[in-house]
Specification:
- This protein is an alpha+beta fold.
- Helices cover 29% and strands 30% of the residues.
- The chain is built from nine helices and 13 strands.
- The strands form three sheets. Strands 1-2-3-7-6-5-4 form a seven-stranded antiparallel sheet. It has a four-stranded mixed sheet with strand order 12-11-10-13.
- Helix 2 crosses helix 5 (117-123) and helix 8 (207-218) crosses helix 9 (220-229).
- The longest helix has 12 residues, at 35-46.
- It is globular and about 60 Å long.
Length: 267
Amino acid sequence: RDYVNALLGHDRNDIASIASGYASTDFGRVGKETPLAVAVKRVLHEKDCAAAILGCDTIPSVCQFNPAGFYLEAVDGELVITKHQAVPLIRYRSGDRGELIGYEEFLARFNAAGIDLLAELQARGGDPSAVKPLPFVLVHGRADGGITFYGANIPVAQIRDILEGSSPFREHFTGNFQIRKSSDEKLDPVLELQLEEKSPGYEKDSLAALMARELAGRSSEYAKLLEVRGDTAMPMITVVGKDFFLNSAKIRYVDRTDGQTGTSDQK
């Protein structure tokens, strides 16, 4: 948000300049990133308290929703929606990992950690009197959005967060990527990552170490893995040309095909 605010000429700390949402081509818009939701993400980031309050290593998408227009559920960790529309949906599986938290419960979780969300909103220029007590939907990414590497979970959201927010990835890569777990000649797991280049000017040989450091900073599981296994836990990064991933309508961030390191399934 800081980065996009700067690009658009807004104050970097502005919480009302950009609004995201939770939506799909199948069921339309469901959740809205209200100023309170933005303040929530600010607090989680600044105080590094996502694990303590939400029980997750990475900050999810946070939106509020109005249950008067549809029925949203979380079934076995997956968001499921029932909605009357031109093509009615009955317990439609979204494929998104997420959870629903009531307004009062959400504020109570932060209060238990000594954080007054409404005061935090006001401190960031928001208006607490305009807040509507709507429930929250937290989206943690796609149900298939990540891989398990030596027992460590590596979500797509963590890779995306690094590419969008950390140097030199933010400056020199588009943010499009694909991650895959393959194996070497000893059948040991290998973490492969394809990154789409935006501009030259970076040290290619340092990318793997930088990516590993950023992952370790976001995941205690990966940090422990890196400590125990050293170089064998490092990702193998392949740089591909710009627009490499535009051969389909949607980028498949996780490649589920099996293969040996060094082989290629590129078309």
